[in-house]
Target: Prolyl oligopeptidase family serine peptidase
Amino acid sequence: MIRKRVLVCFLFALMAVCLASCESGSDQGAEVTEGSESYRGFVMDNVLHSPEEGDIHYNLYVPESYDGSSPYALFVTLPGYEGLYFQGVGANLRYEEFAFEAMKYNEKMIIAAPQLNDWEETSARQTIALTQYLISAYNIDRDKVYLNGMSGGGETGSLVMGESPELYTAYLAVSTGWDGDLERLAEGKTPVYMAVGEEDSYYGSEPLKEAYARLRELYRERGMTEEEINHILVLDVKDQSYFTERGYSDQHAGGASFAFDEEIMGWLFSW
Model:
């Protein structure tokens, strides 16, 4: 009888280890080369050496209060073209303020600012791999994992939403288009906020308007009420006056100002 009990306990422990391994993603055993420089609280140019997705460069902010004893939120912010890795280490943090403004909404939040190489499928997979790694490496509150993408980073973010929406609590798409699988997102029902200028000089506003309309349709097909849809899906199209008031004549460049909009950023971190 004692041997049977020991065997049962061993099997349960083995199952728990296996489940934990599956949940943490395929890059659990990946190695990281830590950066040696810092900028405004971020350790710069860490490199996750993923066996599946290659080297993933990212800047990382971990609050001084973090000691691993309690779960912290996680925010991953994807930059536009000016912040990609070939633009130089830290170019994303010097061009966009989403990472720094996010600190105001939750003091107990780890922030990752990856610098990928493009805005296509490889970068989407690398974003997912990095997120999974951070969840496994730190004590992360799985109910507070946020994603944001601006311009090209928003395209990458949409691909992420079309592949692994359940990995994230909410997604903020800024001044961008939409390339991801809306059917997959509709299955996951991850809350999404889309913010763009009416006459965005690069994308226009039609791509997000079309994605928004199609996603609403998919939610209706799944039996959701208008109130339920409005709760998890927002389209926010700004006219020129919004950008002019913030010192921008170009609506696409003005997307950077969304980082300072408390209504927009507050929505993301309210989940």
Notes: The chain has one domain: 60-269. Residues 60-269 form a domain with the Rossmann fold fold (CATH 3.40.50.1820). The beta strands are 31-33, 37-39, 42-50, 54-61, 72-78, 109-114, 140-150, 170-174, 192-197, 233-238. The longest helix spans residues 2-23.
